[in-house]
Batch of 4 targets.
Target 1
Amino acid sequence: MTLSPIRDKVRAGEPLTFEDGVALYRHANLLEVGALANDVRERLHGDRTYFNRNFHINATNVCVASCMFCSFARLKEGDAGAYTMTHDQAWAKLQERVDAGDPVTEIHIVNGLHDGLPFDYYTDLLAGLKRIKPDIHLKAFTAVEIFYYHQHYGLSVEEILRRLRAAGLDSLPGGGAEIFAPRVRKKICDDKCTADQWLDVHRTAHRMGLRSNCTMLYGTIETVEERVDHMLRLRALQEETAGFQTFIPLAFHPDNNALMKLPAPTGVEDLRTYAVARLLLHNIPHLKAYWIMLGVKTAQTALWFGANDLDGTVQEEKIYHMAGADTPQTLTSDEIVRVITEAGRTPVERDTLYNVVAEGEALRSAKPFRRPVRRSLEIVS
Ligand code: V47
């Protein structure tokens, strides 16, 4: 099959169709698809490749949902490995970094759906982090969490977002989207909000002026058609609100979960998914190669298959490492700069909203940060 008709549309800036997306997935020559995606990437961003200085807080892994792909969640307090942080424990993670002079700009906060915590637990968590560092960007709570709080605490989605924002919420991460097709959701995450509910939380957030990201979990039981459908539903919402900043394809990791018999996606599947995403999602500006999940080497290669962002320094990731990711827990900013530079791209440190923090000489002369020895995490409740 020739890519010519698709190439013509891409060059003319025309949106690709569902059939085009499926054809790109089925096209035998990965490098041809990648080169086309790279044209789009370079038209949008040139060589610029973004990263940020961030870390994750997963305040609790207690979760009423039983997603088959998840290795992180525990059903109830007291189950082996279940934990819920006290506020002091969560706040200490930021305080340690501030004390050590780490110029961190973002905290990524994602939790289980805990049925025994008051809503104040979350607002107080955010407010305390902002007290320690008022300019830290809090990218917190997936749409699945927001929708659960709406149901559990009996407040509208808008009111939940309003209260979280008043406490310090700055934007929403893109997790929990999985695959929108009801056939797949029913099998792998039946007790999670529906695709429409997930999209509606983002629609509401965007209308309130909050930015967010979006994701797709690929490599479980979905078809290529269901992946394309997923991306097109994100594109349609973006057409309406323009509130998504970044799309992040998430490769399934099979260890320690109910889908462990499935193989992980191969490198070729990863690169093809990045390229197709760059081509289909013409209206979402950034495409993130989340190195924690892709592996540093594939993430580096993805910078030539459409991706223009590597996420951040991360430091202590749980969701993927409990699912068998063998990537490091952290990369220093120097290491990220090297990964990007050796890929032949230009590193740019950004904040969460893609404002430039440092580039060029300023980036090269930035003081490297080595994280301090961590106090052990005491598990409460
Ligand atoms: O929602 C869970 C996925 C997501 C597994 O917005 C798994 O900047 C693969 O959303 N194998 C959480 N995937 C991570 C996430 C994210 C990551 C980085 C940046 C951003 C951002 C968002 O991880 C979950 C789920 O879709 N996930 N378990 C697994 N075994």
Note: Confidence is low (pLDDT under 50) at residues 371-381.
Target 2
Amino acid sequence: MAEQGFLKQKPGFATIAIHHAQEPEKWNSAAVVTPIVTSTTFKQPAPGEHTGFEYGRSGNPTRNVLEECLAALDGGRHGFTFSSGLGATTTLLGLLKAGDHILSGDDVYGGTNRLFRNVAAAMNIETTFADFTKPEEVDKAIKENTKLVWLETPTNPNLKIADLATISKIIKNHGQHIIIVVDNTFLTPYLQRPLDFGADIVVYSLTKYMNGHSDVIMGATVINDDELATRLRFLQNAMGAVPSPFDCYMVNRSLKTLALRMEQHKKSALVIAEWLEKHPKVTKVLHPGLKSHPQHELAKKQMSGHSGVFSFKHSGGLQESRKFLSSLKVFTLAESLGGYESLAELPSVMTHASVPEPQRVELGITDSLIRLSVGLEDTEDLIQDLEQAFSASF
Ligand code: P1T
């Protein structure tokens, strides 16, 4: 249903999440619920021959179900899972070689920034960061050796929106072969489908909304292009950052309620964002669903609503942030996002502490910027919790 002018939700999402690749007939037992296959190796009829599986790193029946379901949810042909979101990103670095250049959005998860600036740099792969809210900046920053463009939209933690269709067009107009990667962790395919707007690869930290219960660390990529998928399948096996069958079972189970959970995260977070916007101690709320968001109109064109994660700025400093976060009783002070429980954190000293200070200052990741992940508790309880924390700290 199109709500508040956002893009219409893709039909059949929940049905795909529940049934795609889950046919009971594929198992001898006709199990309705995907079994957890723990075997690390599979009997072969003859040397060099196999019946679909040979070794658990290169493929596992439980993992395959999850990967196929993930691909279908994004409208892609191929899904790959990894031991973490950063494990997925690290594996993508295997597509590049020394001398290549990455162009990344400037406001990305701190761990992604650290991976590019430290690990990729040590492999002689250079990264430059640009403000992707300005497509002309992207155009200018592309170099002859640019091989990969990395986007988060909305960004972590400033909730900036990049125009996926325009940026994809600009990159493709350059004529050189550049892989466009979109980290869709904040929205999930329920709220945004980057492949529809020209992305080549969608990346997830499944640790967040896709699993949604804060009990699995996992990552994924979804791809349409067969040749790129062949390269990724090779790298998944050759680099070896694969998840366990038990964790694959957990994430596959969680996908069954993704649509329901995202609806509630979306609704509750917007009510809380609107409440915060009127609060006397709040100076700014960064939530793409608010009319005050500078890219609200763009958000409506490429998203089917916003999730439960957003940030706000208050009139105090580090001391007030510390007191506020320690005073919360329903929200838990912790890193991460996207679980059923509400979390709050201070990016400047937590998730984004590894971003060099000058870059943090430039991006406005100050000590008065607080990030919330609105969970599935009663909205009214969450508002009361925020109110008592404001009273305790200002
Ligand atoms: O934690 P891991 O599963 O490795 O995922 C890394 C990652 C990738 N992309 C985005 C947008 C992310 O937010 C993350 C992880 N983020 C946090 C832990 C956090 O609190 O922001």
Note: Residues 84-86, 109, 111-112, 152, 156, 183, 185, 205, 207, 217, 219, 335-337, 351 surround P1T (CB under 6 Å).
Target 3
Amino acid sequence: MINIKNSREIEFLRKSAQIVAESLLLAQSRIQPGVRTIDLDKEISEYIRSKGARPAFRDFHGYPANICVSINDQVVHGIPGPRVLREGDIVSVDIGVELNGYYGDAARTFAVGKVSSEKEKLVRVTRESLYKGIEAAREGNRLYDISYAIQTHVESAGFSVVRDLVGHGIGKQMHEEPQIPNYGKADRGPRLKAGMVFAIEPMVNMGEYKVYTQDDQWTVVTRDGLPSAHFEHDVVITKNGAEILSLAASEEI
Ligand code: MG
């Protein structure tokens, strides 16, 4: 069942998502060659706690860090550690927050210094595909209209969408129904209704879509070793389209 949130719940979700948005801006301001990913983790978790919230990924299914930092061929769930960011890397930062029992979850891929034009294109297309998905997230549409919009945009650019990982509903649980694949046929799935809150999150590979999980049991990497990018927003379906909850006040779409 897909939960419909009331306006009070949406306000709580907005607060959590706003802390995530500000945390991503903090990450953006810190990302440069020479930075260790564990130091990003530490600073962002301190920021989240300074807001009275909790880094929600910590201990989620046993996850051993506060945020996920995934570099180049790492798709998602990269565990922060001593690895240092290098010029030309792309780095995906995924952050979850819980405040007052409500969750926020968003991600973004950043360029470290100057990156190749192919990586730049991958990041741009992935970001655009998220916004295509968000445009399709409107009352009266059906769930896989979102999936179709994302897949179509990605594949027309020559990239592929990861199949094994999907977006999700979000609320008092970080992962609620429905699962939101980033591929699918239009005009299929449940009807979208105002008050549904989704974390839409295309994960896009430069090469083939296949991925696997490394021996640390977390880090998902591309099978062909080519780079991957990831953008995620929390959105609420309203009577007039989707509203993005995880966009900071200072940001433009
Ligand atoms: Mg998510």
Note: The mean pLDDT is 97.
Target 4
Amino acid sequence: MPTTASGLPDDHFQKQLLSARRPATSDADWQSFEARFDREFSRLRSLFHRIYGPEADAELLQVVLDAAASWQDRPADLKGIDASRAMTPDWFQSHRMLGGVCYVDLYAGNLAGLRERIPYFRELGLTYLHLMPLFAAPAENSDGGYAVSSYRDVDPALGTMDDLAALARELRDSGIALVVDFIFNHTSSEHTWARKAIAGDPEYRDFYLIYPDREMPDAYERTVREIFPDDHPGSFVQLEDGRWIWASFHSFQWDLNYRNPRVFRAMAGEMLYLANQGVDIIRMDAVAFIWKQLGTTCESLPEAHLLLQAFNAVCRLGAPSLLFKSEAIVHPDEVVQYIDPGECQLSYNPLQMALIWNSLATREVSLLAQALERRHSIPAGTVWVNYVRSHDDIGWTFSDEEAAELGVNGHDHRRFLNAFYVNRFPDSFARGVPFQDNPRTGDCRISGTAASLAGLEADDDAAAVARILLIHSIILSTGGIPLLYLGDEVGQLNDYSYLADPAKAGDSRWVGRPAYPADRYATRTDPGTDAGAIYTRLRHLIKVRKQTPEFGGGQLVPFNTNNPHVLGYQRPGLLDGEPSTVVVFGNFADTPQKITADTLSGLPDTALELITGERCRLHAPLTLEPHGVRWYRTP
Ligand code: GLC
Ligand code: GLC
């Protein structure tokens, strides 16, 4: 049937859909798909029309048929998960959630090795495991797997797709949700789509953004920022035949052209395929970059949101329990725009992450307290993923206007933070490494492990251990899902061996991606070692969190401690059905700090301190030891 300017007639979709039903599909199964179709289709269609216009209805029909096929292929156990999560849609907001992230090869060799680590994940209390990209990728440099050559093949060095599906099942049996990346902004230059595109295959020619000369690249680059200037300046790389192709990240990562609805359909297919392997949550990589518009920054444009919402709607049809986590490491105003039950239900919290490090460096909490007050609240049905660091660099993405209100000059302050974290500031405890130091723009970010950034590589171990526990206590108590970079819980240090590998030497983020620190894990239960001091105390904080329902969800009320070094907030919630609040204090100074009796006078007389299990009086002045933490439950 030809499409017209007004698109296909409404009932056409329904008729076509009936023909997609396979004889083996049971009535109940098909009806559940139809019910979701009835609920979601008009949303999906209106999103599609806003992005592509009604002319693209034929492509939309294919997307819907793909979703119907994928649903019918979906294994029965995953349909069971769909049904049970529909009954408990807030499962990922629980205070029992704890995330971990690792590279399969670095942490365990391969997928088989990773299975053997499941008992440890249970010991730690993980309920969420993010495996860094594990798909087929270029051999030499693949940006740590973020250049994908096939979304349907696991890197053979790690295992097979069947191994991944089996692992997903085993993790689920241990109460651990599997998270993998959905790298949908770009593919590697070795992906078949990419090869066909540059060969001029009419089906794939428009899958990427290819220009005959510098005219359009120059025009775009007037307003687009450079992401990896050490790799190539600007956002384009030249092909062997002289043409230019859009590559926001590395020269071998080619941006997909989402103005072509076929690209949407193709990636939606890859997404549903992954979902059917048993992936619970997909990390939406580089969301800010997916839509380009001349004369703009080409980041976080309105269409980027429409596309994510359209992917979200496709999931509801084909893999209803799949959740999205947004990776928008951008200005806080933009980060929140991705967070919505109809877009991404989870999001990294890069502002909290950056400001935790800011507070450690300055020993002051004003920026962090301001962020908790103004930027913590997100829509119902969504959560922050709180972390102290990821596999990537730390960028100082706070709002300059809000910093100015506190008398902080954003530009100068970033320079200070960069100097501090790369140990170019007198008496800095931090041992970070600059990332993409750009003398032209003055931009720079920081790489390193949590322990090295917090001082464990410098000399005073006790202070470093206390700092590491303090920052983790914040991510464990502000709500949402705390996410550990595995190995940090035993205090792994920077790994400088990347400098000897030509494929990695130019990318300092590798300093923060050490191999499984076996020695440290071996001593983790001995509190006399650094690793053990961190692990046993962190493990205790994790246990306490899991017994503290007030720490679930995201509700947070700031508490002004009247002390510039001490962060305070309250986490109201329910305990056994009764209202209950946990009041949190964290001292970012290297010296003991007081909170006056006056400041505490609004709180009840006594409280249970959850970390020590001691009942305490709250009406005397309170002294916190350097980097000390308190979690007070007040009735
Ligand atoms: C994300 C990843 C980062 C990667 C980039 C390009 O930001 O976290 O590691 O370099 O996307 O895929
Ligand atoms: C992300 C961020 C950028 C970051 C990069 C690689 O997408 O937007 O700031 O540095 O990827 O780490």
Note: The pocket of alpha-D-glucopyranose (ligand 2) is lined by residues 227, 286, 329-330, 392-393, 395, 445 (CB under 6 Å).
